[in-house]
Amino acid sequence: MINRKHITGIILAGGKSSRIGSDKGFLLFKNKPFIQHIIEAMQPLVDKIIIVSNNTDYDIFMLKRVNDLIDNAGPLAGIHAGLHHSNTENNLVLSCDIPLINTKTLEKLTHHIEENADIIQLESNSKTMPLIALYKKHCESKFLKLLQQGERRLRFAVNQCKVKTVVLNKRLGKFTANINTLNDIKEISYEVNR
Asked: Which residues partner with 127 through β-bridges?
């Protein structure tokens, strides 16, 4: 397995959710902000964590926080900014709306690091997850070029790269649930307690 010193963690915590009306990273699950769950899941696997957000409230976590280099361009710009500030070839990128994520699930990515893949992403229930994925540092230049051309679609950008997909079993798949509404929080609380 690759040494954690060679992996940077990048958490995308950009902007307000239109459906929830506040910054998802600060929503609480089990009395902890979502982003705290993500930090704790990621920490054993990485040497350093970067939070990509223009919101200075995230400075409370005492981690490096960087702004998007290209404004209002969604997750693609967030990944680009994180890769720009990373000093490692391998970068574990997570969105801030997956509070169930755990180290064991993320290890499925780190165990599959290889030279040939630009991106290694998870798949659960036949759905690929480019926001729970490992990105090589060199994706930065490709993503910048796409952003400069006005491209904003993350899946389009991912499809321009060599991608390896790691399929999760149903048991691990439930830890990748992302939260888009307050009702989703109730649902995952029920799932976890089943």
From this structure: 124
